[in-house]
Amino acid sequence: MQGRLLNLCADRPSQSFTSRIMDMISDSSHTGKRLAPSGSSFDCFPDEVIGIILSHMPCVRDVVMASVTCHKWQEAAWNYLYRLNFIESDFVSRGTVMTRISREAIISKVVMKTKSLRELSICMYRTVSIQAVPLITWLDFTKKSLTSLTLENGIQPNLNLLDSLGGGQSKLKCFKWESPYIRTIDSIRHSFQSLVSLSLVRPSCTLSPKNLQELLCICPSLASLRLEDTHIYYQADATCQMKSCSLKALSLHGGFEGIDHVVLFMECLDLLTVEGVTFQSLKLVQERQSCLQNLTIEHANVAAWDLGESVNSLRTFNLNQGDDLAKEWPRYYQLISTVRTLQKLQLSGRMLTIHEGVNLNEIAGAFPELSQLAVNYEHAPRAFMACNSAYFKKLVILKLSANTINEPFALWIAQFLNRCASLKRLKIAGEVCEAKTRYMKSLCMFNAAIIDIMRSYPHVKVSFDFY
């Protein structure tokens, strides 16, 4: 079958790749030409099953090629295909990149052939823009069935997709929009009653705190919101307030320049991620105090945290402050030190020693329910002192990483293992430098030491992640 399919694609070498693809999609081409052998086991597959198989193919090129194997597969593709994923490789032939017009023609032809498309993804190079007119046509055609939309390309001219997607007929549940253009929000025309997940990445226009609140109001069922590199402007004060009764996951990644204070009124927020932002204060107000369970902070500069009683319900805390970890850890430890339910703690940074602010004795004593721990070690003569009396009774998964792989790191691992009676999995991660005789000798000594240490712990599954 594969050989015949390749011959089919090469039977007209003078014809452009775009033309061949367009012919394959057309009803008039290959109809009734059964390339698969008669009596093939695929003939017994229901059309719905074939549609599911084609929907799981990674790119549209594969879907088109597979759909022309026989008439049955062609009918199944266009009648029961529910997912299309357009990627850059779909528009490259023999090293030649298609023009914008050719790309849009292929997308139009494929999308307009489907009858029950639910998931559409367009992820070409970010330098490639999509014209507004054909995009509106695709969205209008699929509006009644589309539940998931991913658009990673800009639109020319600027277009507010809320006008095309919103309204009573919208069934959209997941929407990821890069370079969004949102000037105004209308609570009637831009209603998304079914939207559950929304991701806005690098907006092409500046938003106001009022726009963010209006966005939450038109999505009453929204459970997950991700804002990445979002530019927010302010007028009277530098405060941004967000209120939602349905939001369970909120991610703030970069942006928010000029905003000093963020106040979150969230009734059921479960996961909060703050990365690459600078605030004077961040306050969380929750009526249900036992909701917040996951908190991730990465390279964020927040002078004052006010999580109220919600912090006492934390189950997972991830902190990555790079070289500032030793300086920042004391105040973050003070933030979570009263949490007795913490089960997973991940710290990423330099010099985890008692002399630089991170005390493993305090961690073991403060979090008796801890079952997963990830810490980084950088060689220092007194690094082991942090573990002298620390016992992690319920620790099951341990990840230890280092910038330098050497024998002292192995000895530190051994002391850690002595204090983890319930440990089942150990992951060792580290950076491997270029092959030099001196460094390779240290690496060999580390390997020999680990092998000798782990003989005493046959019940512990060990994995390595060297980069």
TrEMBL record:
InterPro entries given for it? F-box-like_dom_sf, LRR_dom_sf
Q: What range does the record give for the signal peptide?
A: none
Name it.
F-box domain-containing protein
Q: Which organism is it from?
A: Adiantum capillus-veneris (Maidenhair fern)
